[in-house]
Amino acid sequence: MGIDNSPEMTPAGRGRNWQEILIVLAVVAGLVFTVFFSFRLYHSIFSLRHMHLPTGTSDVNLIQGWMTVPYIAKDYQVPETDLWQGLSIPDQANRRKNLNQLDREFAGGKPGVIIERVKSTILAYQTAHPRARPLSPTRTPLP
Amino acid sequence: MNVLSNWALSALLTNGVPILFLIAYGGSLGIPFPISLCVIAAGAFAHQGVIDWRLAFLACTAGSVLADSTEYALGRWAAGWLGRRFGQRVVWKAAQATFTRQGGWAILLTRFWLTTLAPIVNLIAGNRYPYARFFMYDICGEVIWVLIYGGLGYLFAEEWPLINQVMSDFTGLSIGVVVLGVGGYFFLRWRQNRAGGT
Asked: What is this model's ipTM?
């Protein structure tokens, strides 16, 4: 499968050259993928091993825009009515919307306003009810 | 997290198992839905009591098996054209013979390990591989896939987004190792041929 160095290369010779190029590309791509994802995997596992908050605490900074109010209420063990009151938004017709959608509809499209209100409502509730803190909220922010 | 992942997770929270079935079906068909993220999240949501784990398990398995069967049917439908186009080539015949002998492993492993290759394997299987055998390997592989991904989400419910990151990195590493292995194998053969030719 050697490289044909003749001035006028035959179609078979050109085919062999393409095969050689593909083999080299596969080896290089495989090496790049392997090294890149090895580092990423090592970093992810390292993060996983060091990602433990003390039991009984909850981090409101982990609240994300895809979450809905009923889900947050369940996860953080805060009454749903308290959250809706804190947001000053009626729960009817809004229970199935996520925080990003509520931002668009009730905060003039400013990103993060509703999330901040939810955070402050939860913090206020947790301060008033210290024993009601959840044992297992979703702790890790998405990358 | 991108818009599609945001949408998928919100839809999973609000619609539950039916949307999980649709995501499993679409994602297994090759549509770029965040299927692994959703299965891991479904495991975590089941742990948090948001969805029923039995229904979630059924939805993931049924959706992915149905998608695989759809691709198998597509492969069978295209078999005539492929046969006319490539049927006389030696490489094609050799590939078919190899798949008939060892296709079961390819079907099984691409369900839960090299999942990116699953649609291609399904299309190839549809060409000649018996459906009953395909279905058996397929359902076993998909059950393993759902148990691994959903189970990790369930067990590590508090850190499920990070588990998703670990699994996607592991998949990337696996693909890299396989590409490197195949490339290395052909590189060694090329060197042997060149040494033999001189």
From this structure: 0.72
